[in-house]
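Students often ask why inverse folding is considered easier than folding. One informal answer: many sequences map to the same fold, so there is more than one right answer. In these notes we will look at a single instance of the problem. The structure comes first.
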């Protein structure tokens, strides 16, 4: 009964299969056009002026251009006509990110392009591999903070070679072969190099292989001691190029949805939310909740911007008096910190701040305190 209702909610004009076929043909045509062209890195070279980087803020888009971004999945709202044309990739819980290795350093950027951390890695140009010290790579990853490790989903660039227009089956084959080569070197370097992060390649299961699919869907926990925990399953069309942005050629399902959408059994140990009835209804409610959160975040961001303008005015008006001005700023920052409700608490210079904007305010305050002490 539920499946009949589920199918009736999808109109022919909205069918993902039609959009997939159209997009696949466009990607095939583009690959043919670019087949004989040399692939270079003008887009990805950091812009410099007089030998120094032009950008002080380490945003991904500032450094490498706006044309490159993460590939995002759509809900798998209906079963594809031919499941044999797809890969299944189990995805752990964590923060989705782009990882860039170049010039002896490896950097993590959030899905919004913000720089999160720098470290060493065995990736080409990552700083921990002598064999590939001069390389350059961009990987699509999930960072699990509990494990302190990156789980690789896909590849955009590797060793100065672009894979954006390569098919998914080739990208996954390339990653598997390269990570097999790096495995021995990683085991050695993680014991001998400080500030190095580990990378684990997630298994891409061919939907033609019944054994690997059964293991991925029915095994619980999927990873030893349930670390990291499984978040859901990504489905990649074998012929799809890497699309910067949302695409119907990469789809997503939570474990408890798999049986209803694909009619494939999954482990019954995965928890089913109490508000789950049918896949479509849950997807719609989930999207509405995410939209509400985004709207709340945007409103909060606007409030932060207004607070910054007001704070800058306060700094200017009180800059002539060191001691009195500093007391005023401390009191104002304290009041605003109490008013802000955020999920992250961070420490800087002995002062507790709870947002990116408060970090910037705290840096300004610490700088003025240093001037006052002089």
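Output (designed amino acids):
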């Amino acid at each position: 009964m539920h499946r009949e209702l589920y199918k009736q909610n999808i109109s022919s004009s909205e069918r993902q299969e039609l959009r997939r076929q159209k997009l696949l043909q466009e990607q095939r045509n583009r690959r043919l056009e670019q087949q004989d062209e040399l692939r270079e890195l003008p887009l990805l070279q950091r812009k410099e002026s007089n030998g120094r980087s032009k950008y002080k803020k380490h945003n991904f888009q500032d450094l490498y251009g706006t044309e490159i971004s993460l590939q995002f999945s759509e809900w798998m709202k209906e079963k594809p006509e031919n499941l044999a044309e797809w890969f299944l990739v189990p995805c752990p819980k964590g923060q989705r990110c782009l990882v860039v290795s170049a010039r002896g350093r490896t950097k993590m950027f959030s899905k919004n392009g913000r720089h999160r951390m720098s470290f060493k890695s065995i990736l080409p140009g990552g700083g921990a591999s002598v064999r590939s010290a001069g390389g350059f790579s961009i990987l699509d990853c999930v960072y699990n903070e509990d494990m302190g490790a990156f789980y690789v989903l896909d590849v955009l660039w590797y060793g100065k070679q672009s894979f954006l227009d390569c098919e998914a089956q080739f990208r996954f084959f390339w990653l598997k072969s390269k990570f097999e080569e790096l495995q021995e070197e990683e085991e050695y370097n993680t014991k001998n190099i400080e500030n190095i992060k580990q990378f684990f390649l997630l298994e891409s299961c061919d939907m033609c292989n019944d054994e690997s699919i059964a293991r991925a869907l029915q095994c619980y926990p999927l990873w030893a001691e349930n670390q990291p925990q499984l978040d859901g399953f990504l489905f990649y069309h074998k012929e799809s190029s890497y699309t910067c942005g949302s695409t119907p050629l990469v789809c997503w399902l939570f474990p408890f949805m798999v049986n209803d959408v694909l009619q494939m059994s999954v482990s019954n140990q995965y928890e089913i939310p109490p508000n789950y009835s049918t896949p479509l209804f849950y997807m719609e409610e989930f999207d509405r909740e995410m939209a509400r959160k985004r709207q709340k975040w945007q409103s909060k961001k606007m409030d932060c911007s207004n607070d910054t303008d007001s704070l800058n005015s306060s700094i200017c008006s009180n800059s002539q008096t060191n001691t009195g001005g500093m007391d005023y700023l401390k009191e104002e920052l304290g009041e605003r910190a109490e008013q802000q409700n955020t999920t992250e608490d961070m420490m800087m210079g002995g002062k507790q701040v709870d947002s990116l904007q408060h970090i910037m305010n705290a840096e300004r305050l610490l700088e003025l305190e240093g001037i006052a002490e002089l």
